[in-house]
Design a protein that fits this description.
Elements (H helix, E strand, L loop, with lengths): L1 E4 L5 E4 L4 E5 L4 E5 L4 E4 L3 H21 L17 H7 L17
Antiparallel strand pairs: 1-2, 3-4, 4-5
Length: 105
């Protein structure tokens, strides 16, 4: 998130990944992907610099994550495996897919 200032000096944080475009005539206006617009006191160059800094921090943080003992094909543990589901008592294992049936036309 980057922190910006509205024209009434209220500060707010915004996700820069959701900014579609930025206009700078005469005030700096952020147009979001959902169409919302925010007018801020920062200049176009300042907003771009904040976005670049945010993205640099994200990359830096990702590089600081210690490498795990991950091998190609090894599950990362983000989704429960079938054995985890069996232990939890769920009726259908998480890794089992449901077969699709053709539509009747």
């Amino acid at each position: 998130m980057i922190v910006l200032t509205r024209l009434n000096d209220a500060r707010f944080a915004i996700n820069p990944d959701l900014i579609e475009r930025i206009h700078s005539t005469p005030d700096t206006t952020l147009v979001m992907v959902d169409g919302a617009k925010y007018i801020v006191t920062e200049s176009l160059a300042e907003v771009i610099e904040l976005i670049a800094g945010y993205r640099a921090r994200v990359i830096s943080m990702a590089r600081d994550i210690p490498p795990g003992d991950f091998r190609p094909g090894q599950p990362l543990g983000l989704v429960p495996s079938a054995t985890d589901t069996e232990r939890s008592g769920e009726s259908r294992p998480a890794g089992v897919t449901v077969p699709l049936r053709p539509r009747k036309m």
